């Protein structure tokens, strides 16, 4: 064979051999770059302080004493992923899954690790929820590495304090003189809301605001012979859900609340009643203030304002 033809033949044969070599050894090269599980003992050599806190948590006790599967038996690597490459180069944050915003692991990947075990149940509506849409991570509300709270491995000591990290307005509302007993610890945010998702817009644990309120205020449910339309429509027409500076969590002080709808009610003047006007008009007469602004105002007479089952209770007076 002529030299120039032999050279061309050798070049073609080499080009054909390259893909074959890649097929033979490519998988071995890829495997060399993949992380493998190194075991909990290797993690403890560097993370002794984290291990001391983690050992007090429910996760640690379950994973070490009674793992449900092979993944839970890996303890640290069950959540953080295989750690061999991280052990070789701890400065490269892409080599292991971290659960802080500073680490840089995508939120969806972080939450995916948690949802691998904690899917369904209260988290059924997590996909598409407002918290998921705002890129909230499980680790923003929970701290699986340290027992800070009594239950649920929360990031703060209580459910309310955990929610207050973002919901500062609600925190201030609970400080008003009339409020739900959340600061006293008699109830918490999750008594009304499901932070992991709900079919309702404000993450309610029922189909409507009224249904949530009825879980504690069953006497307001009815049915009543004489129903009060705004009450039946929505409790929030009259009440603030978290706190108010008016009595009974009312959105407006009585009688102004009632007069928002009943300005020209039959049997009553259409003027606005207030304490200063009544006191001034009665001072010259030497009489007491009108009962329409004293005590419970309109409810001095219309006591069954949420509804009445009395045959003569059409105006909720009995």
The pLDDT mean sits at 85
Structural class: mainly alpha
Strand content: under 5%
Number of strands: 4
Biggest sheet strand line-up: 1-3
Topology record:
Blueprint: H1 3-32, H2 40-46, H3 48-54, H4 58-65, H5 76-80, H6 84-88, H7 107-115, H8 130-133, H9 138-141, H10 159-164, H11 168-173, E1 178-179, H12 209-214, E2 226-227, H13 229-233, E3 243-244, H14 256-259, H15 275-283, E4 307-308
Antiparallel strand pairs: 1-3, 2-4
Structure description:
Among the domains are: 41-150, no CATH class; 219-308, no CATH class. It is elongated and about 85 Å long. The protein has a two-stranded antiparallel ribbon. A two-stranded antiparallel sheet has the order 2-4. Residues 15-31 and 282-286 have low confidence and may be disordered. The protein is an all-alpha fold. The chain has helices spanning 3-32, 40-46, 48-54, 58-65, 76-80, 84-88, 107-115, 130-133, 138-141, 159-164, 168-173, 209-214, 229-233, 256-259, 275-283; strands spanning 178-179, 226-227, 243-244, 307-308.
Give a quick set of tags describing it.
4 strands; 36% helix; elongated; two-stranded antiparallel ribbon; single chain; two-stranded antiparallel sheet; mainly alpha; 318 residues; 15 helices
